[in-house]
Amino acid sequence: MEPDFPITRIKGGVGAPQGFLTSAISCGIKNPAVERLDLALIHSELPCTSAGTFTTNRVKAAPVKMTQAHIRKGDLRTIIANSGNANACTGMQGIHDSRAMADGVAELLGLKRTEVGVCSTGVIGLPMPMMRISPRLGELVGALEPGRGPDVARAIMTSDTRPKELAISFDLGGTRVRLGGCVKGAGMICPSMSTMLCFITTDAAIPRESLRLAVLEAVEESFNRITIDGDTSTNDTVLVLANGASGIKPVRRNGPRCRQFRKALRWLMLELAKAVVRDGERVTKFVHVKVRGARTYLDAKKVAEAVCKSALVKASWNGGDPNWGRVLHAVGYSRAAIREELIDILYNGTPACVGGLQAETPMDKLRDIAALPEFEIEIRLNQGSAEYDMYSSDFSPEYIDFNRSEYAYWKQARKDGLV
Amino acid sequence: MEPDFPITRIKGGVGAPQGFLTSAISCGIKNPAVERLDLALIHSELPCTSAGTFTTNRVKAAPVKMTQAHIRKGDLRTIIANSGNANACTGMQGIHDSRAMADGVAELLGLKRTEVGVCSTGVIGLPMPMMRISPRLGELVGALEPGRGPDVARAIMTSDTRPKELAISFDLGGTRVRLGGCVKGAGMICPSMSTMLCFITTDAAIPRESLRLAVLEAVEESFNRITIDGDTSTNDTVLVLANGASGIKPVRRNGPRCRQFRKALRWLMLELAKAVVRDGERVTKFVHVKVRGARTYLDAKKVAEAVCKSALVKASWNGGDPNWGRVLHAVGYSRAAIREELIDILYNGTPACVGGLQAETPMDKLRDIAALPEFEIEIRLNQGSAEYDMYSSDFSPEYIDFNRSEYAYWKQARKDGLV
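The joint structure predicted for all components is written out below.
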């Protein structure tokens, strides 16, 4: 649902807001033999306020630990991101390599190291091929210019099949402001921060505390509500930079402009989060699971997560099978307080199960719905008024085929003399 | 590991202990067009003590609810089980059908209804085809004879590829006793009772309270430690009958003979549980995950469960990839208190990861281990002395192919006039 005020979609992703420069180059981190963008830079010409959220995995990649520390100390102004190597499970060497990336960029741009965020995504457990990165930082910084946002979206892709970005402009108390973002998926996607990187820029002026609250709230209602394979990654990061370059005067905490900005941010993040599910690894279905009538918010969430993560439910989605029995069995083991005999299950509004029993709807009609590439399943618990929405995908045989082995990465690392 | 006293493997499964009669017939519940055993009966000539554990899913099949009530009231002496239809999500009609099965058997055998346990496994959400079952109960009871245990193991199979049974005899304080069991899997397998039925018989004499404790303990260390697809079913049931027909005098609670019986029961159940994993749907690997050095038992369990249920870890097992990075990332999101830099990961005793970093073992050597059909992964947290063992399988593309659709069952039910 779009915000309740006019927005205009504009081009340029993270490069769309004023005062942001971007660049991306191909360093051979993904694969030395193939020319693909894999190192990106986002830089604000003006100081920013910033906010971030990070993976809840206790095994955190080196760049996550470092960037978390930077953002605790003050505000970021620049983000360097690479794909092809996650710099996770790499110990002190990993921290050293992340620092080298931040230091290199900070020196070239005349910043403090703590103003630079570093994000990495890709294979875990292998050292960063710094010999391919360090010599190219000058070129990366030199290539900074307005309007290269789409290249950033492309440079952070790993198993993603397409770049995912979105930018809008809207009127904020009389001043036109812009909000742009890009995101990458596409495996290790699970609530509590998906395996993903998401960068968002805005030329609105948002005080730090307001921005941090807005980001927490928006992440909770977007990236924490998607799942592809139920695995929470080591590298998930959302970073938001606000530079005020639109000329707007800073929004007042909890004032009407602040609330309006929060709505726009929530909507943008949810659109990006849905784009991650739609482009999930070997995904063929996008399913919106709506839980209604739960006794508590937590019960509603438990039910949604159990259904969205069940291998058997996801296999039936892959088969276009309106298998409400599997949905109900996942509701049953969710640990929520449910009563089987009260539950209704609807596919795109058509009842498949009423009061825990098969509805009278002809199965062929339900089958036509489950054959669609996108559909909704509404689970009415009929016990209260709490709700939860989640977005999930099917589980395909091709997903497993795709994820059977990362041995090729290890062989390349050996060729590079890294292991 | 076998018990620390001599046991002899014998033939006959649940029919091996003295005083148990068994039978199985083909009623066309699985598929009217194909002759396959799908209705089985186990009956003790003498009164029994009995114990059972049941699914933790809040959506319980009708026979589970009824059998739970029966065993709360007293002891079972007879079990009737069918495959092909789980009688789950079938409301009052389901309860009525389960009662009809128990009543029919009780009347023919001159028992009270509460002495009969009913178990069903198969498709959920469709009414039981009672017109195929009720007229055949006389034949089923009439066919009771010693030594048909293997037919019972076959009659409870659904997606299982082979019958799974085991029987042993051993000396219990001077008297030879027998212990036999059979089990079926093979999908919806997850800790907290797998999607499975398991029946165990013994001609030892075990007082009810001792038997119930022994069964709780054995299930906790066997069936609650396996997973195939992470889905907890609506029908999981373990039933154990002890009839004392060996002539032994009842064991004393917590006495040496009671402890010895518990050891034998634990071993038998663990063997049957492992057999379920090895015969899991489209499974190609059997992996024993050993967590060592956890601060608490609960932490060890969380780590084992996260690793054994991770779709990405299981996909790498399918690919024979010794991907310790994915194992470590699952340890990280397990919510256990772990410290990345302390963790070692070994494949069949060979280090893959030491202190959170890649070990010096050549990757090709680890790859040879991960290529085996069965191997062990030991995760040393190095923070304490708590341990947990779990048994899991890979996730194969064929598993998803196999589970894409149950539409054919629905079509058959329509042909039968049931929906």
